[in-house]
Write a structure and sequence with these properties.
This protein is an alpha/beta fold. The protein has helices at 11-22, 24-31, 59-63, 81-90, 100-116, 134-140, 155-167, 171-180, 189-192, 195-209, 228-237, 298-314, 351-354, 381-391, and strands at 2-7, 35-41, 55-56, 68-73, 94-97, 121-122, 146-152, 211-212, 219-220, 239-250, 253-264, 276-283, 287-294, 325-328, 339-346, 361-363, 371-379, 395-401. It is elongated. 48% of the residues are buried. The protein binds L-homoserine.
Length: 402
């Protein structure tokens, strides 16, 4: 029998406890032995909840119990999760987590510690909620170099953008709805300013490029500026607006950013709506591959945590190699990476002034007047700024094209 513990009885932790209870027989068969939820750690009490039978308030009870084989953490924040992870791994207890803050900041160190102790540190649920993407990257796609990653990595903002587009709802109303559904972060700024997706692309890029990509180095723009006119233009262009996390390699440099993008209908990311996430990887041998599924929510995220628990039980005493060096990877300046841009200028801008942007494709949107909008060829941010200045027009907005 494999005894396991869950740290945190919030949205995800209670989902893990639910799956380990309701699907116990199924999960145990998959693991090859019985998985028993022995403890749930939380500071709070839950009178009347079945969790009471296994609830403890002290981590030492768990880590000092010689029966415990796997600890799953869903508390959030770096501390005390990091201290708990270290204590567990030092004792050879495998540790899995849905906590992207912990993984982004301490992933390399915890993987190394797991290796020293013939244990595992897994974090499938930290990116893309329930979508299996980390394990495929580590264990299936071992033949390829990943030169490009593009993902819809935040369920809350994708849910919001979809509702704003399809139902014309306001930013505030859809945010409230996403919060009620348990998708949003404790502080929803992390969702709408792109920080949550920033952590996730930092984790994916660290795995893809085998070195620490720091969240602080990722260029991040959120969705707070996106308005109904942008959606009208996107419709006219046959495109969708998506908050993407992206990492690219070009001329020996690596770039990582989060920003709203116009996505064409021929891109599989176009159809990824609502709380769904998708991660599209380009392997140098395989070409494109895309992983799609629910990116947030209790059961979906807990499903990924439980898959890690099962893997830890299966791999007891054997460390699964994950290449992620603690040395930071120096990222290139995103402003120097060429993109095509969708641009909105104030007023009617004549052809001579538009020539500053090179060859452009103009676009008109239903119900939007008093501005000039177009799509440029590939240019850097600096080239775009220079063109705006040369045209003498005032830029209302620019959105990159994927
Ligand atoms: N707030 C996150 C999201 C939760 O909306 O994607 C899952 O990481």
């Amino acid at each position: 029998m494999a005894a396991v513990a869950v740290l945190g009885y919030g949205t995800v932790g209670s989902g893990v406890a639910k799956i380990l209870t309701e699907n116990k027989t199924h999960v145990s068969r998959r693991a090859g032995e019985e998985i028993d939820l022995k403890y749930v750690l939380d500071l709070r009490d839950f009178p009347g909840d079945p969790v009471e039978k296994v609830l403890v308030h002290d981590f030492d009870t768990i880590v000092n119990d010689p029966e415990i084989r796997v600890i799953a953490e869903a508390m959030g924040r770096i501390e005390p999760a990091f201290t708990f992870a270290k204590k567990a791994l030092e004792k050879g207890i495998s540790f899995c987590t849905s906590n992207k803050e912990l993984v982004e900041a301490k992933g390399a160190e915890l993987i190394a510690l797991a290796k020293e102790n013939q244990a595992n540190f897994f974090f499938e649920a930290s990116v893309g909620g329930g979508i299996p993407v980390i394990r495929p990257m580590i264990q299936s796609l071992t033949a390829d170099h990943f030169n490009e990653i593009s993902g819809i990595l935040n369920g809350t903002t994708n849910y919001m953008l979809t509702k704003m587009d399809k139902e014309g709802l306001s930013f505030e109303d859809v945010l409230k709805d996403a919060q009620e559904k348990g998708y949003a972060e404790r502080d929803p700024e992390a969702d709408v300013e792109g920080h949550d997706a920033g952590r996730k692309i930092a984790i994916l890029a660290s795995l893809a490029y085998e070195k620490q990509v720091n969240f602080q180095d990722v260029s991040m723009e959120g969705i707070t500026d996106i308005d109904s006119a942008d959606f009208a233009y996107a419709k006219a262009l046959g495109m969708a607006i998506k908050l993407l996390g992206a990492a690219r390699k070009k001329d020996g440099s690596t770039y990582a950013l989060v920003a709203p993008f116009m996505v064409g209908a021929d891109d599989p990311l176009y159809a990824v709506s609502g709380v769904f996430n998708a991660v599209k990887l380009h392997g140098d041998m395989l070409g494109n591959v895309m992983f799609y599924g629910k990116g947030a929510g209790k059961e979906a995220t807990a499903s990924a945590v439980v898959s890690d628990i099962v893997e830890c039980v299966r791999e007891q005493g054997r460390h699964v190699e994950i290449l992620w060096d603690a040395d930071s990877l120096e990222l290139g300046n995103v402003a120097e990476y060429p993109f095509r841009y969708f641009v909105r200028l104030s007023g009617t801008v004549d052809g001579a002034a538009l020539a500053a942007f090179g060859t452009v494709e103009t676009v008109k949107a239903e119900g939007v007047n008093g501005e000039t909008a177009f799509v440029t060829g590939e240019m850097t941010e600096a080239e775009l700024s220079a063109a705006v200045e040369k045209s003498g027009a005032a830029m209302i907005k620019r959105i990159r094209l994927n």
